[in-house]
Specification:
With about 375 residues, the chain is α/β, with parallel strands linked by helices. The longest helix has 14 residues. β14 and β15 form a beta hairpin. The chain folds into three domains: about 90 residues, 3-Layer(aba) Sandwich (Rossmann fold), CATH 3.40.50; about 130 residues, Rossmann fold (3-Layer(aba) Sandwich), CATH 3.40.50; about 90 residues, Winged helix-like DNA-binding domain superfamily/Winged helix DNA-binding domain (Arc Repressor Mutant, subunit A, Orthogonal Bundle), CATH 1.10.10. A five-stranded parallel beta sheet has the order 6-5-4-7-8, with helices on both faces. A four-stranded parallel beta sheet has the order 2-1-10-11, sandwiched between helices. A four-stranded antiparallel beta sheet has the order 12-13-14-15, sandwiched between helices. The chain contains 15 helices and 17 strands.
Amino acid sequence: MVGTGAPVRGSDARPALAPLTGYTVAVTAQRRADELSTLLERRGARTVVAPTLRIVPLPDDEALRAATVELIREAPDLVVATTGIGFRGWLEAAEGWGMGDDLLRVCAQARILCRGPKALGAVRAAGLTEEWTAPSETGDEVVEYLRERGVAGQKVAIQLHGDPAEDFIRTVRAGGGAAVPVPVYRWTLPTDITPVQRLVDAVCARRIDAVTFTSAPAVNALLRIAGDQAADMLEAFRAPAEDNGVLPVAVGPVTAAPLTRLRVETAQPQRARLGSLVRTVASALPKRSRRMRLATGHRIELRGHMVLLDDEPFQLPPAPMAVIRALASAEGKVLSRTELLGHLPRGADGHAVEMAVTRLRDAVHLRTCVETVIKRGYRLNLEV
């Protein structure tokens, strides 16, 4: 394990570092949060789990029961399954009301469209057969399919996925069909938003290297909880790597849409899968690390909360890490104590700068890495 200010030592043949060693990655998902965190940690990341939403099942909801009764009484021509958890939840709720067999019967008679593989898996697990599955796993593709095939005079059951599926409903009605929304569950804010507020603080302070998103509602909830800090958080997302920007990573374009509308670019995998999302993070973050050579010949690399000196990792406390990042961004120019103070946590004074520099030198066991320029400040002793 990497200790604060201590190198990771072993045999002479030092094993290669995991790709995310030194980086802190936030997980905003509720569902499969543990799985996503484990996958990131296996690649060396330190994770911060702060679900921005929680799923509230609606097995006793009057709207769900009413939609189910309506569809059993007058069978739909089309059923749109948008999520695996939602479709399974619908069948389970119907079973609890004694309507399970009737619901399966009407679904078996209908043409079934699936938004993605999870919905497809739930449909097949119920013994049903799909007509079509969206290749790109997006709601937009399902909407386009409905437009092209036409829904005039047809009854379309739309299993919702946390938020009202306005595009689906609008498309069906505009095409002359009758849309029946099926609200199986809904998204709501966490009971305790304190972890999310701490995440917002950490993003604004740029103490997080990447934030992962697996749904658009999770993005919107984070922005909502951020409140007055939303502008600073978006600025951190927009900032380039050299300014210690925070990398937003979305599982796909639909998830990224709320950030895209706010002019925030996101990293995205080619396929909307957790494994692909993790591989994207593991590929993108190391490319954002800063590599330099000191005048003494030593090689130095900054990655997240860690410094690599000649490929030997040293984990630094926040203040020394903030100092070396600021000095690295200055590219060998002198920064005054006042300038460096602006990079330290609030409430720090000039003496805190001196202490941070001292701790930095001691932590990496190389006092010559930072040069004191009398009456002016400090600079990173880089190779000219």
